[in-house]
Structures are given as structure tokens and as C-alpha cells.
Design a protein that fits this description.
This protein is an alpha+beta fold. It contains 11 helices and 10 strands. It folds into 2 domains: 168 residues, Jelly Rolls (Sandwich), CATH 2.60.120.10; 104 residues, Arc Repressor Mutant, subunit A (Orthogonal Bundle).
């Protein structure tokens, strides 16, 4: 489903020159607006999604002021020192432009959930809620100018180009750092002992993950990760190893055929038993027996 930004505004004194130049990427929409302004122009804006407002060009003797309330003095916006604003979702802004003749600005709206999924992690809500108004950053402006040029390009490049530029800009403005791998907590000693004892005693049948998780009082996902953090292998591999150890003991006794050992250790047939045994030990049952029986 294509992301469509949702915005409310009440504006006056603006006349759009030509058409809006819009590009829609994966969870990101970028618009370049060329606007002629009356001697006084201004209005009110609020968006339902986070957005970036970047002033690319402004002409005229006057100035533009961005305000948090309609009656406040606000702060001057310009193209040199304060062209960039990050505006959180739902934040209300007012703008007053006096004796400004022309404005070109880039608006980038993005769906935080979609961008988070693309980054394979949720974006910290505090970063999304932290407004950054009227600042300058050379790297952000370089990206913004490239994005603006791509929006105006009559023969757009591959979608990955503009999409990558926008994603890079969002990462930079929100200062999204590389996530550190989460350290998985291990099972407590009693949980590990209870689990491994249960597997040893029941390894010949199919043990469900739910059974093991219930032994430790953990969810299945938590248990599975904690077991691997404790042992280095998954629960099902521990069970397979337990079956192979039982098979080794039977091989050393010398009185059982391979089909009988396969049946006694929970494998579906001799071929399955041989395949798993070789994968676990590096040798077939026959070769392993030959090497270990005096």
C-alpha cells in the first residue's frame, strides 16, 4: 500500500508555480514546492506523520518566521543558518512571511512504522517526538539538494536512488545509530539442569518446545533463546545429541543391529540414523564402532 501523508493547513498569500513535484518511495514521500508569495503570506500546519521541512531557496527583502503559537514572535528561517526543521507528528506550527517574493522548499513525510521495519528495529519514540526546528547541517543540506533535484528530474533515476537518499537523511536527522546486538540472557542453573534431565529421559520421543518452556516458566521464544545462550545449541539439537549418545552405548555393546539401534534411539529408519550419526560424529555408525571397539 502506497504511503500517503496526511496534513491539515490553513494558508493565505501563496501561489504555487507550476505543479507540485512529488516522489513516493517506500514509506517516504518527498515534495518540492515552488511558491510565489504575496506581501504577507502565512498559515498554520499540522501533519499526522513526522516530516522534514527544508528551505532550499528564498528571494525577497523580507523574512520568514516559524512560530509555535499564532501570537508568538517566532524565529527567523533562512537558507544559510536555519533552513532545516524536523517536525514530529501532530506538532502545530505557524509561519509568517513578510515581503518574501519566492520560496522553494522540500517536504519529506515518512511513516515511522514502515521506516522502522526497513531498519529492522523500532525507532526510539523519544527521537520521533523530539522537535528540531531551524538548524543547519551541511550533510543534511547536501542530501536535501540531491533529493530536491531528483523530485524535479523529468527522467527520474531508479527508485533506490531517491529512496536511499531520503532514508539516509532521516537516519542522519534523527541520529539513528547502529543497534547493538542484544545479549541473550542464559537459563538459571536449575532451569538448565531441569531441561537437560528432561531431554535425557525423554529423548526417544518427540519433545515439544512448549513442554520445555513450561519446565522453566518461560515463553517458548524466551526459553529457546536462553537455552541456546546457555549451551550454544538449540533444544532440538541437544535432543539429537542425546539420541546419538544412546546409540553409541548400544554400538559398544555389540549385540544390536543398526536397524534395531535406529528403532531404539528414536530414528525413523537406518538411513536416517546413519545420516544424523555421521553429521554429529563425523563418521558412520560402522566406522565409529570399529574405531572404538577393542
Amino acid at each position: 500500500m502506497t504511503f500517503q501523508p496526511r496534513m491539515q493547513n490553513r494558508i493565505e498569500g501563496f501561489s504555487v508555480v507550476g505543479e507540485m513535484n512529488r516522489r513516493n518511495w517506500n514509506g517516504i514521500v518527498a515534495d518540492v514546492w515552488d511558491v510565489e508569495c504575496a506581501p504577507y503570506a502565512g498559515g498554520y500546519y499540522v501533519a499526522h506523520d513526522p516530516r522534514l521541512f527544508i528551505l532550499l531557496d528564498m528571494r525577497g527583502p523580507g523574512d520568514s518566521r516559524v512560530k509555535l503559537t499564532p501570537k508568538s514572535a517566532g524565529a527567523v528561517q533562512d537558507t544559510v543558518r536555519r533552513p532545516i526543521s524536523y517536525v514530529p507528528a501532530g506538532m502545530e506550527l505557524w509561519a509568517d512571511l513578510v515581503d518574501v517574493q519566492f520560496v522553494r522548499h522540500l517536504d519529506i513525510h515518512f511513516d515511522a512504522d514502515i521506516v522502522g521495519r526497513r531498519l529492522m528495529e523500532d525507532i526510539d519514540p523519544s527521537r520521533l517526538a523530539d522537535a528540531r526546528l531551524l538548524f543547519h547541517d551541511e550533510r543534511v543540506m547536501a542530501l536535501a539538494n540531491l533529493i530536491g533535484a531528483e523530485c524535479l528530474n523529468q527522467q527520474p533515476l531508479h527508485d533506490l536512488y531517491g529512496d536511499g537518499l531520503c532514508l539516509s537523511l532521516i537516519i542522519d536527522v534523527l541520529k539513528l545509530t547502529k543497534a547493538q546486538p542484544r545479549k541473550r540472557s542464559k537459563l538459571a542453573t536449575w532451569q538448565l539442569r531441569r531441561t537437560t534431565d528432561f531431554i535425557e529421559q525423554n529423548c526417544l520421543r518427540n519433545i515439544r518446545l512448549e513442554e520445555l518452556a513450561n519446565l522453566t516458566g518461560l515463553s517458548q521464544s524466551h526459553f529457546s533463546h536462553a537455552f541456546k545462550a546457555s549451551t550454544g545449541i538449540a533444544p532440538h539439537q541437544w535432543q539429537t545429541n542425546a539420541r546419538v549418545e544412546k546409540a553409541k552405548r548400544l554400538l559398544l555393546q555389540g549385540d544390536f543391529s543398526l536397524p534395531a539401534i535406529a528403532a531404539d534411539t528414536g530414528f525413523s529408519d537406518q538411513a536416517h540414523f546413519t545420516r544424523v550419526f555421521r553429521k554429529t560424529t563425523g563418521a558412520t555408525p560402522a566406522l565409529w564402532k570399529k574405531a572404538h571397539v577393542a
